[in-house]
Each structure stands twice: as structure tokens, then as C-alpha cells.
Design goal:
Length: 263
């Protein structure tokens, strides 16, 4: 199928984005994530963007309207003054009873999808207190476009792009799909970097820092010096990482990271 003129005009920018992401090393995962959000926001004329790691609980409640899906990691391109409290309210809403938007979005888990907010809610939802409190006030957004990118049966990368004045269109959805559909390798790397794929639990910020230094090829003494930790503390963090990823050595961890068979 021939690409629309809008997509054709933006194709060189999409290719440049893919090339740039491939040039980031495994230890630059945070920089790569922020670069992606920045470039896609510019491409989509969005005012802000969010990336999340979504995981499905091993034994969800049978009555869970989200089917066990949760987002333990959420990060924004431009954190707003009220964003922390807004995220807490949003996450709490999942336990108190998630809104229909979240239910419908996670019901489609398992396939790549780009959805407008209007695809997920009834028209009257835009008059709700939830929309006004979470989106208009907390996130300074009049409209949001959502992207779900599955990596395996129990993990997904999620993205959201926010506009404060105008609404997204179907052409915007097509552009986002063109740019993001083939990046499964990158979503896997992001999820691994946050301990949301093979790890038994999400990584803490300090564990993420230690992991990045490991991926740079640094030994335990160099990591201790960089982190200003004692050797014992560093070894403790290394052992925690190995336990979370279910490995026993740096070599096995690197094999997992590179998608190789464990040595």
C-alpha cells in the first residue's frame, strides 16, 4: 500500500530515528528512551510523552477488570509539577476500580495497537471528574494517543503522547504505527533495563545504575568506585541483580541481555 503524503514526508525522520536508536549502547538505555520520546513528540507535535512497562500478574484476581495488567514503571519526557501526585492517583484508581479507558486498552493486550482516547471511552467520559482531574489538570492534556507494544505474553511497552490544545487524528495514529511498529527489539531492551521482563521484580533506581555499569563492562571494584559504595555493598547489589534475573554470573546476565542462550 502506498504511504500517504504525510507519511512519505516524514519517512526520512523515522529512518533517522531508527538509526539513532540502534547506535545507543546497551548501557545508555535511559538516554535512548528519552531520545525516543523527544523525537516522537516532535514528529507527532505532542506536548509531552510517557513510556511505561506493563506486566501481567502471575495469578490475577478472577474479577480483575484489567486481567492482571499493571504498570509498575512510568516515566515522562517532561515531568510536570503535579505529575507525581497525579500518577499516584492514577495508579490508585486501578485498585479502586479502573476507568473504562484502562479496561478497554488492556483488553487488547497481545497485539500492537495505536488508539485515540476517543476509541476507548464514551463521549460523556470527557465531561467526567476523572478526565478533568487526571488529564486536564494533572497532565495538562486535552487529548492522548496510546500505544501498546507487546514483547511477550506477559509484558508490554506502553507509550502515551499528550496534546494540550488540539486532538490527535487517524493520520497521527498511522504515523505513530509507522515509527514504532518494528521496534520490538528496543522494547525488549527497555523492559530488561527496568527489570520488567526476565527479572522476578522491578529494579530499584540503584539496581538500574549498577546494571548500566555492568553493561559498560565495568568490574565490581570499578562499580563500587563509580557508585561510591563499599565493595561489600556493591557485591550485595550484584547478587540482587543476579537473583532477580535468575542467573548466577555476569556472563549469564549478558547472555540474557543479548538474547543468547545462557552459557
Amino acid at each position: 500500500m502506498t504511504a500517504s503524503p504525510a507519511l512519505s514526508d516524514r519517512q526520512p525522520r523515522i529512518h533517522a530515528l531508527w538509526d539513532a536508536l540502534a547506535d545507543f549502547s546497551s548501557s545508555q538505555i535511559v538516554d535512548a528512551r528519552q531520545y525516543l520520546l523527544h523525537e516522537l513528540s516532535a514528529l507527532l507535535e505532542a506536548d509531552n510523552a510517557m513510556w511505561s512497562g506493563a506486566v501481567r500478574l502471575a495469578q490475577p484476581n478472577l474479577n480483575d477488570p484489567l486481567g492482571g495488567w499493571r504498570m509498575p514503571v512510568m516515566t515522562y519526557l517532561h515531568p510536570l509539577p503535579s505529575i507525581d501526585s497525579t500518577i499516584r492517583d492514577y495508579q490508585q484508581s486501578y485498585e479502586d476500580g479502573p476507568d473504562m479507558k484502562s479496561v478497554r486498552f488492556h483488553a487488547q493486550a497481545g497485539r500492537f495497537r495505536v488508539l485515540l482516547m476517543a476509541d476507548l471511552v464514551e463521549p460523556e467520559w470527557f465531561e467526567s471528574d476523572f478526565y478533568r482531574h487526571i488529564f486536564r489538570k494533572g497532565m495538562n492534556a486535552i487529548d492522548v494517543m496510546f500505544v501498546g507494544a507487546p514483547v511477550n505474553a506477559d509484558t508490554e511497552a506502553g507509550l502515551a503522547f499528550f496534546r494540550s490544545e488540539t486532538r490527535f487524528t487517524r493520520d497521527d495514529c498511522a504515523l505513530a504505527e509507522q515509527a514504532l511498529r518494528s521496534l520490538r527489539w528496543f522494547w525488549r531492551r527497555l523492559l530488561l533495563g527496568h527489570g520488567l521482563m526476565l527479572a522476578g521484580a522491578p529494579l530499584t533506581p540503584v539496581e538500574q545504575q549498577v546494571l548500566q555499569l555492568l553493561l559498560q563492562g565495568k568490574n565490581s571494584k570499578q562499580i563500587a568506585a563509580d557508585m561510591e559504595h563499599s565493595p561489600n555493598t556493591t557485591n550485595e547489589y550484584l547478587q540482587r541483580l543476579y537473583r532477580k534475573f535468575g542467573v548466577s554470573s555476569r556472563a549469564e546476565l549478558m547472555a540474557l541481555w543479548l538474547g543468547q542462550t545462557r552459557p
